[in-house]
Amino acid sequence: MDRIVDRDEEIETLRAAIAACRVCRDTPAKGEGDRLAHEPRPVAVLSRTARVLIAGQAPGLRVHESGLPFNDASGNRLRDWMAVSREEFYDPDRFAIVPMGFCFPGYDDKGSDLPPRRECAPLWRQRVIAAMPQIELVLAVGGYAHGWHLGSRTKKGMTETVRNWREHFFVNEAPRVLPLPHPSWRNTGWLKKNSWFEAEVLPVLRQNVDSLIR
Predict the structure, then answer these.
(1) Is 98 left (phi over 0), alpha (psi -120 to 50) or beta?
(2) d(CA 135, CA 95)
(3) Which of 3, 39, 99, 150 has the highest CB neighbour count under 10 A?
(4) Do the strands 137-141 and 176-180 form a parallel or antiparallel pair, or are they unpaired?
(5) How far apart are CA 96 and CA 126, in angstroms?
(6) 121 with 148: CB under 8 angstroms?
(7) Other C-beta atoms within 10 Å of 60: how many?
């Protein structure tokens, strides 16, 4: 019982520390000229019980405004990939949701989301993962998550990393990592071109998610 209480306290302390983090605004890694231009709003769902971790990229503007991860069209597609309801998705007993960068990074000159802030993962990620030892499956969504969770096993480019999902998934280590493309509308063309993803990866994704959240 004491161990459960200690873990609850650890998660709550970590959650509060993340919510209060302003490093990307106050002490940016690349210097004063790279300050986050808006007030940070870290978005992450930590859990003591969830066995599935969704490791995304960074919140978009809509998520920044709502404080709810994947509260957008990308989230709808991701939930469809997993065959889970919105209610199930936002149940912290079922899913932990921890992006590579906790805050909306802003837009580049072309209007696309900037990469996750480089301050975030080195500061928080190892602590977050260590606080959730019950995680059995990591859904690594997008290239930045692939790089961190797969390390040297990451292939050259997102397509090859996802195409070689068996090499990453069927290994004798825990937690298992399943690399996924980002569910953004920008990848609709990629999904049409790479039909093997729906045929090969989604059944495995759905089967494993279902077995871990029911």
Answers:
(1) beta
(2) 9
(3) 99
(4) parallel
(5) 15
(6) yes
(7) 21
The pair of three-digit structure tokens given for residue 69, joined into one six-digit string: 């991860």
Return d(Cα 112, Cα 105) in angstroms, integer: 10
Q: What is the pTM of this model?
A: 0.94
Nearest to 62 by CA among 79, 54, 45, 74: 74
Residue 105: is the preceding peptide bond cis (ω within 30°)?
no
For residue 116, the 8-state DSSP code is P
> Residue 146 and residue 139: Cα distance in Å, rounded?
9
Give the 3-state secondary structure of 192-206: HHCCHHHHHHHHHHH
Q: How many CB atoms lie within 10 A of CB 184?
A: 19
Task: Report the half-sphere exposure of 27 (CA within 13 A, side-chain side).
Answer: 5
Partners of 180 in beta bridges:
141
Q: What is the mean pLDDT of each run of 10 residues along the chain (214 residues)?
A: 71 97 95 94 97 97 95 96 98 98 94 93 96 97 96 94 95 91 95 97 98 96
Would you state the structure tokens that stand for residue 192, as one six-digit string? 């049409």
Q: Can you say whether the dihedral through the CA atoms of 72, 76, 82, 84 is positive or negative?
A: positive
